[in-house]
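Renewal narrative, Specific Aim 1. Our central claim is that a sequence can be written position by position from structural information alone. The example that follows is taken directly from our test logs and has not been curated for this report. It begins with the structure tokens describing the chain, in the order in which they were read.
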């Protein structure tokens, strides 16, 4: 029987000596992140999981692997990385702002996630919190400060339906989606995305260290308020923050 992980397509030999991984959702972002490391090279590709490796400024090898979109594929990625001996993971992703002070181009360093998705509920009851590892969160915050990137630290909302957020009125359960969205805003939730709750819950149960840093692409609430709301897709700041943090962590 092959020792290759069924979904992510990696073996223990592929990641020998590697303990930390940077996890974008988009496979296309993997080579962009790996390009900021030394001696970067592709090592596997299967389904939504594209994997490269490279070395940081201290000579430590790091894995960069995409997780695809949403909780199910993220949970599979974390499970199989854990089987290979990875103990630290940092998500690099994108999100939509929910508070007026969160502007497009800002970074969100995620301390916790609202579990408004389904994957984590098949691991543990909803009362269990989806929280980041404090050491990883502090490393991300220190990196953003050292690099002088505008950032916020706090909670994000995690959901399964992209269009349920952006067009809730046409959904049969739109009343529930809109009521909860209003509740999260009133509670100070910073942004909305789709993977972090599963990442934190699965990592916590497996006793892995997990954190997340995300680029705010735009903010629909600022647009509704008539405030400036440019759309930003340049992920360089979030990538550099993650690499700086993981270098310090390992």
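The sequence written for that structure reads:
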């Amino acid at each position: 029987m092959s020792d290759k992980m069924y979904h992510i397509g990696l073996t223990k030999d592929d990641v020998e000596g590697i303990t930390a991984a940077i996890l974008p959702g988009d496979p296309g972002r993997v080579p962009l992140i790996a390009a900021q490391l030394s001696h970067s090279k592709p090592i596997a590709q299967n389904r939504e999981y594209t994997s490269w490796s490279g070395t940081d400024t201290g000579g430590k090898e790091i894995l960069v692997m995409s997780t695809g979109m949403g909780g199910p594929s993220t949970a599979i990625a974390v499970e199989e990385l854990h089987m290979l001996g990875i103990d630290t993971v940092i998500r690099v992703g994108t999100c939509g702002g929910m508070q007026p002070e969160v502007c497009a181009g800002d970074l969100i360093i995620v301390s916790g996630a609202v579990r408004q998705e389904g994957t984590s509920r098949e691991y543990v009851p909803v009362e269990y919190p989806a929280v980041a590892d404090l050491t990883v969160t502090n490393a991300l915050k220190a990196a953003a400060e050292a690099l002088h990137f505008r950032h916020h630290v706090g909670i994000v909302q995690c959901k399964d339906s992209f269009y349920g957020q952006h067009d809730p009125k046409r959904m049969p359960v739109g009343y529930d989606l809109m009521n909860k969205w209003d509740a999260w805003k009133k509670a100070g939730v910073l942004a909305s995305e789709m993977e972090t709750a599963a990442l934190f819950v699965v990592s916590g149960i497996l006793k892995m260290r997990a954190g997340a840093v995300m680029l705010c692409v735009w903010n629909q609430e600022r647009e509704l308020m008539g405030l400036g709301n440019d759309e930003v897709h340049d992920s360089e700041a979030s990538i550099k923050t993650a690499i700086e943090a993981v270098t310090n962590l390992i």
